[in-house]
Amino acid sequence: MRKHNPWIGALWAIGVVLVVGAYSAGVWQSTFFYPPPGRPDPGPVVEFFQALADTLKGPALLAGFSTIAGLLFLHARNHARRATKKPSR
Amino acid sequence: MKRIVAEKFDPRFDARFQPGFEQKAERQAPAYPAPERASHDDAAHGTMAPGELAPDESEPVEADPDPNPFERALWVFAAVLIVGGVAVAFWANGLNYSQSAVDGGWTWPRIVQSSGWALSGPMVTVGLATGIGLLFRRAITWRPPE
């Protein structure tokens, strides 16, 4: 049985979490731009997280998509190496 | 210890390839002194070509995870960029807008504020990319345990 690289597993998790998290944070944060009438003041803690999401969503999306692309390149490289090691028929 | 008959000695070839040569004598006393090994200091100071640096047999290769100082510096660099980028963004957001760009022109607070906004995104992006690149390095150099 082939042993799986734990670092590749961690990178897949990081890539997916970055993309999904950044997109969700962006959607959540955009609700603050168009508040429904009568909405109460969210408070300093929510405003802090709103500003944090505003800062992080772009870089996190870029880094997440780059991570997934890099992992696909890495898998392609490993696949090519395994293919060259196999004896040809 | 003379082991070769003089009249049969051919000067074109090494003593090991002459008739009558005994291997035992060679083991006890090598014909040539071992070439002096270049020290790591020579390589560090650029007084020798990098290819001349012979590996030291006394150090086991890949015996322990390489404590690469550059890798440690890159981890620090990534953390500083991420934390610094977020801090710069919050600091720029916190500056007040007492001076209008239209009325007052470009004043130092506005220049610093716009610089903070411009820098924070790339700083966090490059910081995340550096950390993920270091994880890729770990993934590429990983070998399954024996």
How would you explain this protein's 3D organization?
The complex is a heterodimer of chains A (89) and B (146). Chain A is mostly helical and 89 residues long. In chain A, 75% of the residues lie in helices and 0% in strands. Chain A has helices at 6-30, 44-85. The two termini of chain A are 24 Å apart. Chain B is elongated. In chain B, helix 3 (69-94) runs antiparallel to helix 5. With 146 residues, chain B is mostly helical. Chain B folds into 2 domains: 9-52, no CATH class; 69-141. Chain A binds chain B through residues 3, 5-8, 10-11, 14, 18, 51-52, 54-56, 58-60, 62-63, 66-67, 70, 74, and chain B through 85-86, 89-90, 93, 120-121, 124-125, 127-129, 132, 135-136, 138-140, 142, 144-145.
Summary tags:
heterodimer; A: 89 residues; mainly alpha; 2 helices; rod-shaped; B: 146 residues; 5 helices; elongated
Number of helices of chain A: 2
Question: C-alpha Rg of chain A, in Å?
Answer: 20 Å
Which structural class do you get from the secondary structure elements of chain B? mainly alpha
| Topology of chain A as a string of helices (H) and strands (E) | HH
H/E topology pattern of chain B? HHHHH
Q: Characterize the largest beta sheet of chain B: strand count, sense, and whether it forms a barrel.
A: none
- Give the overall average pLDDT of chain B: 71
Question: Could you outline the blueprint of secondary structure elements for this entry?
Answer:
The complex is a heterodimer of chains A (89) and B (146).
Chain A: H1 6-30, H2 44-85
Chain B: H1 23-28, H2 40-44, H3 69-94, H4 101-104, H5 108-141
Quick description:
The complex is a heterodimer of chains A (89) and B (146). Chain A has 2 helices and no strands.
